[in-house]
Design goal:
Length: about 350
């Protein structure tokens, strides 16, 4: 009996294997009871399509958000005027940044939320298929495209919903205003920019000091391969501390004098292999703060401009077009590094007035 049962089981297994093998296609198994594609669920209408009051309420929300964006843009302009930073005081700068930034964020956020809510709650809501066509389109297709624009205008209500349309236009017109106003603050208002950027606090005899401690630097403190972030020793006496520091900041390095390639009139600008160059990139004014000891390259991390310190800080890579201005230095009777004069050319990026 056991043998008959076992033989029966074996036959069942063989039969099952035969049935499975007949349904195999490559390595895939075609299941006889595969799940059928249920298709898309029925399209549900929005509450704004069913209730006219909800539709009007959504419209009020949209144009209210656009008006809030308009108010935010104007508030940013007013904040820029009422919270100036010319004093250089840290609290003034903090208040200026907070109010201008908050107003611009409100303008952008309200504009974005209003546009999204307009599309989700008010624009026509139906499913459609965009059939692709060959390029270029025929005149008939272009005529159809023009008709589609008219239909889209009708479905979106752009021409019909005057409050939404006008508030959107007002918000878009006002939104660039803070940026335009802020651009004015990038340059001096009442003085010649050539005079402002052409001169710094460096003058003959000014000692080079560490940033930010203000401790004067001796030539013996600078080892080959080292780099110092340097400011004028008397920087704390400046009326506009941050502005003066932004122009006068310097990088100090020491190389083997044999590796320096110096023009004849610049050989006296360095001291025993110690050279000083402006830290302000000549591209757009970013801080050049990375020094590669083995290549003697200074790297601007913002836009990847590179300057060769061993060869007059000339540009070897990147978008900068001019070498970094060099600060002529020497030592005083006590061995402290001092400036021989101010920079011989304006620091920072190029601008049209600097060549006049």
């Amino acid at each position: 009996m056991a043998k008959e049962a076992n033989s029966g089981n074996d036959n069942a297994v063989i039969a099952a294997q035969g049935q499975q093998s007949s349904e195999l296609v490559g390595t895939a198994v075609i299941a006889p009871d595969a799940v059928q594609n249920p298709g898309l669920p029925p399209h549900g209408r929005r509450v704004t399509d069913l209730d006219e009051k909800k539709n009007k309420s959504a419209e009020r929300v949209v144009y209210s958000l656009f008006y809030v964006s308009l108010a935010g843009s104007l508030a940013a302009v007013l904040a820029y005027m009422y919270f100036p930073i010319e004093s250089g005081d840290a609290m003034d700068i903090r208040l200026h940044t907070m109010f201008v930034g908050a107003a611009m964020a409100l303008a952008l956020l309200s504009l974005g939320i209003g546009a999204v809510h307009w599309g989700k709650a008010l624009m026509s809501d139906h499913e459609s298929i965009d059939v692709r066509h060959p390029i270029p389109s025929s005149p008939e297709v272009r005529q159809d495209a023009a008709e589609i624009f008219e239909i889209a205008d009708e479905e979106s209500g752009f021409s019909r919903r005057t409050l939404v349309r006008n508030s959107l236009i007002g918000a878009l017109v006002a939104f660039p205003l803070p940026g335009i106003v802020l651009l004015r603050g990038l340059g001096p208002q009442d003085v010649d920019p050539v005079e402002v950027f052409g001169h710094t606090m460096w003058e003959k005899g000014t000692r080079l000091a560490r940033d930010p401690s203000g401790v004067a630097i001796k030539a013996t403190d600078v080892q080959i391969g080292s780099v110092f972030h340097v400011i004028p020793e008397n920087l704390h006496e400046a009326e506009n501390h941050l502005n003066e520091k932004a122009k006068a900041i310097v990088l100090l390095m020491r190389l083997d004098p044999k590796e320096l390639i110096e023009e004849e009139h610049r050989k006296s600008w360095s001291y025993d292999g110690i050279v000083a160059y402006s830290k302000v990139c000549t591209h757009v004014g970013c801080p050049v703060a990375l020094y590669e000891q083995h290549t003697h390259h200074l790297l601007c991390p913002c836009h990847q401009s590179q300057f060769d310190v061993s060869d007059g800080a000339k540009v070897v890579f990147g978008p900068a077009k001019r070498p970094l201005p060099q600060l002529p230095i020497t030592v005083d009777d006590e061995g402290y590094l001092i400036a021989q004069s101010d920079f011989t050319e304006p620091v920072g990026p190029s601008y049209w007035e600097r060549l006049k």
